[in-house]
């Protein structure tokens, strides 16, 4: 039995990303002799009246331990309870696996790994590449350079890259080829498949879209996601396909106000719907409404939305940049367009919407491709092999 200690800043469905990866990965690692304990911060509930549960036993081999944090610098939350617990638990942990770049959780696990001679694996989930604005995120750049240098000087760390472009970023931090392992994220094709969206349509009052050409965007409302490019392209599209409609589904930020202003500027308020955060269990119904899914992000290290939508037999149009250009087979599972090219994006959307046969053909092939190349079964096999290898 391999005993894993997973590190993550939070473990809540509202925080997506690494949490969703851990949930799927652990579920498929159940086929192997592995026991996983997750160590994370607690968080305050939606009403800010009480903290979430601190301890959960999901299965005998999957436990979550959360710790209150009262000190923090930005998102760096200090959990003294975590430190005390890991000093006791380390004897029952073979490998620490961090999904928590720039976190107290990872730093404490690294410290204990140094002192107690434990193995450490880090999946950065693209976060070492996330210094998009160097002045705004200067502290991240400084932290990453010093932290990565020190850890690799003192520890024999293995890194997991979720895309080939991430491998290049990791190398820039002086990490050697043999310490980088390419394991792209998987997709749950049992959940993500073409499905009946009737309940979802009624719940969100979308019945007026049933006879329209629907474009769907799924993801956080953040500046780097290129939603402004999509809205501008959609406004141009009205001259060619006036019955087209745009659904924007994702966690809301202050950036939403800019997008709303852009929608009003183009006078297309009646054609754009903001759905807000959609639980993962409902996402297949969102994708299933679409005639095309658009993912115009400028910086994306992988692009889970792409594989999810492809698994639901949907054509995806995404920016020809970083992860998406690795995931999409241009012309076969979707189409690539240059980031910021409003006219080019509009033309690609119009081409797909005007060709139902193309939508069907690409959609069916895309699902087969995802099942063959991005299954969680394959992902878990690669993780298990890595775990065994680092313990040799």
Description:
This protein is α/β, with parallel strands linked by helices and 392 residues long. The protein has two domains: 201 residues, 3-Layer(aba) Sandwich (Rossmann fold); 176 residues, Glycogen Phosphorylase B (Rossmann fold, 3-Layer(aba) Sandwich). It is 39% helix and 20% strand. The protein has 14 helices and 16 strands. The chain has an eight-stranded mixed beta sheet with strand order 3-4-2-1-7-8-9-10, sandwiched between helices. The chain has a six-stranded parallel beta sheet with strand order 13-12-11-14-15-16, sandwiched between helices. A two-stranded antiparallel ribbon has the order 5-6. Strand 7, helix 3 and strand 8 form a beta-alpha-beta unit. Helix 1 packs across helix 14 and helix 2 packs parallel to helix 3. The longest helix is centred in the last third of the chain and has 18 residues. The chain is elongated, with a radius of gyration of 22 Å. The two termini are 14 Å apart. The model has no long low-confidence stretch (mean pLDDT 89).
């Amino acid at each position: 039995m391999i005993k894993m200690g997973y590190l993550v800043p939070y473990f809540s469905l509202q925080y997506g990303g690494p949490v969703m990866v851990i949930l799927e990965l652990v579920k498929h690692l159940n086929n192997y002799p592995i026991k996983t304990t997750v160590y994370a911060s607690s968080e305050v509930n939606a009403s800010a009246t009480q903290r979430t549960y601190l301890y959960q036993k999901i299965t005998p081999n999957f436990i979550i331990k959360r710790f209150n944090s009262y000190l923090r610098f930005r998102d760096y939350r200090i959990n003294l309870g975590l430190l005390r617990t890991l000093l006791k638990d380390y004897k029952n942990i073979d490998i620490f696996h961090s999904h928590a770049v720039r976190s107290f959780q990872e730093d404490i696990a690294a410290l204990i790994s140094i002192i107690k001679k434990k193995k450490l694996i880090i999946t950065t989930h693209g976060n070492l590449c996330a210094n998009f604005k160097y002045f705004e995120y200067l502290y991240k750049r400084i932290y990453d350079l010093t932290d990565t240098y020190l850890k690799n000087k003192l520890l024999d760390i293995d890194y997991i890259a979720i895309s080939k472009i991430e491998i290049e970023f990791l190398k820039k931090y002086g990490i050697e080829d043999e310490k980088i392992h390419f394991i792209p994220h998987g997709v749950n094709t049992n959940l993500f498949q073409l499905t009946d969206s009737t309940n979802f349509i009624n719940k969100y009052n979308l019945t007026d879209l049933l006879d329209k050409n629907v474009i769907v965007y799924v993801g956080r409302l953040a500046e780097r996601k290129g939603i402004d490019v999509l809205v501008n392209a959609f406004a141009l599209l009205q001259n060619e396909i006036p019955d087209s409609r745009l659904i924007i589904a994702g966690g809301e930020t202050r950036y939403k106000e800019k997008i709303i202003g852009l929608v009003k500027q183009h006078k297309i308020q009646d054609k754009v719907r903001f759905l807000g955060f959609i639980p993962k269990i409902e996402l297949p119904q969102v994708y299933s409404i679409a005639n095309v899914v658009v993912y115009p992000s400028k910086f994306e290290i992988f692009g889970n939305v792409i594989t999810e939508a492809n698994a639901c037999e949907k054509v995806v149009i995404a920016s020809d940049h970083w992860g998406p250009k690795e995931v999409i087979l241009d012309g076969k599972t979707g189409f690539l367009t240059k980031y910021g090219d409003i006219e080019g994006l509009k033309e690609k959307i119009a081409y797909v919407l005007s060709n139902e046969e193309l939508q069907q053909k690409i959609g069916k092939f895309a699902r087969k491709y995802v099942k063959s190349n991005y299954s969680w079964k394959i992902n878990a096999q690669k993780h298990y092999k890595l775990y065994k290898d680092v313990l040799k």
